[in-house]
Amino acid sequence: MASIFSRIVAGELPAYKVAEDEHHLAFLDITPLVEGHTLVIPKREVDYIFDLPAAELAALHLFAQRVAKGVGAAVPCKRVGVAVIGLEVPHAHIHLIPMKHVSDMNFANPKIKVAEARMQELAAAIAGQVPAAAGEAASAHSSAKGERETTETPAADATGSATTDASLTQLRQLTQGLQFISESEAPLEAVSYAAPAGKLTDATLAQLAGLPAETRVEKQELTYFLRNHTADDGVLGDAALANRFKALQMYLKQELEDVQVYRLGSGPQVQVLVLGKTESGQLAGFKTVLTET
Question: Positions of the region Disordered (predicted)?
């Protein structure tokens, strides 16, 4: 009888998939130790992982490495732990577990329950962060070189000096190559600013955007602002890109406080700042431009 994992591979059972290639599949554990707990399997059913031929075992771990990078980028953690138990399902599999504490890897811990909507959000976020295989990455670099040159420009704080803040580093990775589509396309650029001395006023926001102090500022909720870019059938027409916007949205909501979208000006070019507070009190997020005529 086929294992439950083989039935997932065959499409007979659903799964929250995060990555797949010709020989491997990764999906969220439906009885996780922590949010983001992911299983990596070979599509070929083999009970004991160390019965895999050397080449297949190596390929499985290389695939798991890519998935682990996606898990680590999408789910806040200190490390992505790795475990092979092999007693639950007679189909070789690797556990990838985002850890904040060593105890997160204790399989004697009670399993947690995660709502379906949250599982879908996590799967999309991780999928959006799994890097391409080496050959695919080289091709993508060649075709998107111009975009990378734009988005890798170091963001600056309010005094113009570059910052190496961890939040900014993560935001650069999440926004790299993303374009916001309105009546035209504009890149998303990660930004970080020193915390304002007092309340974040409209005049301060205008100053951050390099606009006159009297510039009109309109606030929007983040989910509403990104709604057309996070929808699988939205303006991007590309589920993988939609997943990247979902990952960005989830990171902003989880890692920053009081995230807000600020629209500055009345068109046709509207400057947009999406900002929240980091643990250190800095403002961080991204900026882009809308075209509205």
Answer: 137-164
